[in-house]
Amino acid sequence: MLDPTEDLSLFQLRQASMDDFAFAEALTHKNMDGYYRRHNLVWRGDLFLCSWRESENFVLEADGVPIGVMRVTEENNSLHIRDVQVVEGWRRRGAGTFLLNTAHRWARARGLAECQLRVFVDNPAARLYVRMGYRPAGSRLAQLGAIRHMARRV
User: Which whole number is the average pLDDT over 102-106?
Assistant: First the structure.
């Protein structure tokens, strides 16, 4: 018989270590490369490393195989989602929703008021964020035309 309290998720999330850095950077760089080129930005591995060291980093797995990365930081009264990256073959299968729902639960558990993220305006993931309640936030340094700053209450 099915136990309704049992976690039936296909996904597992674990805290990342420096051993996961190469996977995380390669995945993020690959996923973001087209946006960077279209918006005349240059990938900087040194900045990614600096951000990695300042963030809480997690690896998403399916059957023990890494398929994604989520990176977060706490800023004032919000959880800032720095990265939600999913391997191409696992997109549109619930991985991004799983990661965002996890971030929302963490923010609530920490007593934070909201989650924030930034997304390229031409990134199809922005539709997922809107479906999950994210709305454009006020002016911020990230509002450079190519990047939209979004937030949602938790």
Answer: 97
SS3 of residue 108 by DSSP: helix
DSSP 79: E
From residue 96, give the alpha-carbon distance in Å to each of 72, 117, 124, 148: 14, 13, 12, 18
Residue 108 has pLDDT above 60, yes or no: yes
- CA pair distance 96, 131, nearest whole angstrom: 12
**CA 129, 25, 32, 91 torsion-angle sign:** negative
Contact 97/68 with Cβ under 8 angstroms? no
pTM for the model: 0.89
pLDDT class for 9, splitting at 50, 70, 90?
Answer: confident
Bridge partners of residue 147, in order along the sequence: 120
CATH number at 145 reads 3.40.630.30
User: Structural domain tally of the chain?
Assistant: 1
Tell me the sheet residues that pair with 80.
Answer: 73, 116
Q: Has residue 42 been placed in a domain?
A: yes
The parent domain of residue 19 ranges over 11-153
Is residue 98 one of the residues assigned to a domain?
Answer: yes
Q: How many residues does the chain have?
A: 154
Mean pLDDT of 120-133: 94
